Amino acid sequence: MSNTNGVLNINDDSFDKVISEGTTIVDFWAPWCMPCRLQGPILENVSKKMGDKVKVCKLNVDDNMRTAQKYEIVSIPSLLILKDGQVDKKFVGVQDEDTLINSIV
């Protein structure tokens, strides 16, 4: 796991532990995906604005197929909002800052 501008890069091995408590946004993405690159700075802003209220994470689907398959991710970017390990909301495609923040509060 590594942290970039408030966004935690997670993988198949760390996924369950990271999402187990609290509210977490997970961005399922890949480096070759242009819309995914647009989503990145938006997530950084969400992380800055929400602070400790939410964990903001990214999971590279090319390197972590097990988790992507478990959550039936077929298009990227896809974002899951999880509360205490349970999926609360799912978005497909680039989402703006307000949409993400409003879906959490």
Structural account:
By secondary structure, the protein is an alpha/beta fold. It has one domain: 3-Layer(aba) Sandwich (Glutaredoxin), CATH 3.40.30. It has 4 helices and 6 strands, in the order ββαβαβαββα. Strands 1-2-4-3-5-6 form a 6-stranded mixed β-sheet. β3 (23-29), α2 and β4 form a beta-alpha-beta unit. The longest helix has 17 residues, at 34-50. It is globular.
Can you summarize this structure?
The protein has 105 residues and is an alpha/beta fold.
Multimer state? single chain
Task: Determine the mean pLDDT.
Answer: 95
Beta-strand segment tally: 6
Category from helices, strands and their pairing: alpha/beta
Helix content: 25-40%
Strand fraction equals 25-35%
What is the CATH topology descriptor? Glutaredoxin
- Whole-number total of structural domains: 1
Given as residue ranges, the uncertain stretches (5+ residues, pLDDT < 50) are none
* End-to-end distance: 26 Å
Structural shape: globular
What is the CATH C-level name? Alpha Beta
Question: How are the elements arranged and paired?
Answer:
Elements: E1 2-4, E2 7-10, H1 12-19, E3 23-29, H2 34-50, E4 55-60, H3 65-70, E5 78-83, E6 86-92, H4 97-104
Parallel strand pairs: 2-4, 3-4
Antiparallel strand pairs: 1-2, 3-5, 5-6
Structure characteristics:
105 residues; alpha/beta; Glutaredoxin; 6-stranded mixed sheet; 4 helices; 6 strands; 31% strand; globular
